[in-house]
Amino acid sequence: MQTVLIQLDTDPHPSSFDQVVAVDSGIDRILSYGGVAENTVEPLVHGAIFTRGPADLHHTAIFIGGSHVESGERLLRRVQETFFGPMRVSVMMDSSGCNTTAAAAVAAAARHVSLPGTTAVVPGGTGPVGQRIAQLLAAEGAQVTLVSRSAARAADACDRIRTAVASCASPGRLIPAAATTPDETAAIAQNADLLFAAGAAGVRFLDSRHLAELTNLQVAVDLNAVPPAGLAGIEPADRAVRRHGIVCYGALGVGHTKMKVHRQALQRLFTASDLIFDTAAIYRLALELEADGPV
């Protein structure tokens, strides 16, 4: 029986990136739908769960994508609400690559530092990837300062993340902060162990002199591959490269892991009919892959 991935994209045109990754993951057929919303998804889910018997539903899975992460998360909840009894298929949500990118970045840092009790700073933290990095770090017990140009947006994001990690055994503290210049960001990061730059393309958070001045910093991750770098001095291809005594990762260095996590998650969707690959589950997969050796 062929494996079938049903791609539900909240944008008008389904992502070609996600389709190519699915092909490279060995999936037999991809059925792609664009402009999918909460009020239109039920017939598509019914088509997934009523066409094969319960014993064969693991051959069908759903991927939720699109550029608007909050819409993707609402769609994930609606898909799960449509399932009942054994009539369900496995689902992965990765709108804008938010979950696979955040999972790869935090798992990379965890190779070098034990996360509980560490101090982390996330410039660009109100974006889709930044929020999920902060969520994963807080769930691990790190103290996380989420930095935005807007103090109000930073505070709102921290409130959402606190709710998301409330059930964790020992969630870390979340601190909102505002910064509009590299000097202000450097001052916030002065005592940080970990630094994750997760802003939009072309946004510079630190100038070249700042990394050398952050003497407590152990790991720095810059997720911007488009010049200028978010953290000046880190190259996009850096992968555990030491600069000023700091372990550095660039966007392509993290992207290597992100792609492996993405493909592995897609493949695992077809091992059962009740798997949900959300932020936490994708991070657990990234840690598992890292434990088997650098991915």
Q: What keywords describe this structure?
A:
12 strands; Rossmann fold; alpha/beta; seven-stranded mixed sheet; 10 helices; 2 domains
Integer tally of domains: 2
N-to-C SSE string, H for helix and E for strand = EHEHEHEHEHEHEHEHEEEHEH
CATH topology of the largest domain: Rossmann fold
Alpha-carbon distance between the two ends: 30 Å
The number of distinct helices, counting runs of at least 4 residues, comes to 10
CATH architecture of the largest domain: 3-Layer(aba) Sandwich
Assign the structural class, choosing from mainly alpha, mainly beta, alpha/beta, alpha+beta, or little secondary structure: alpha/beta
What is the chains' assembly state? single chain
**Could you estimate the helical fraction of the residues in percent?**
25-40%
Number of strands: 12
CATH class category name of the largest domain: Alpha Beta
Dominant shape: elongated
Q: Please outline the major beta sheet.
A: 7 strands, mixed
Radius of gyration: 19 Å
Summed over residues and divided by their number, the pLDDT gives a mean of 95
Classified in CATH, the superfamily of the largest domain is NAD(P)-binding Rossmann-like Domain
Instruction: Point out poorly predicted stretches.
Output: none
Give the DSSP E fraction (strand runs of 2 or more residues). 15-25%
Question: Spatial order of the strands in the main sheet?
Answer: 7-6-5-8-9-11-10
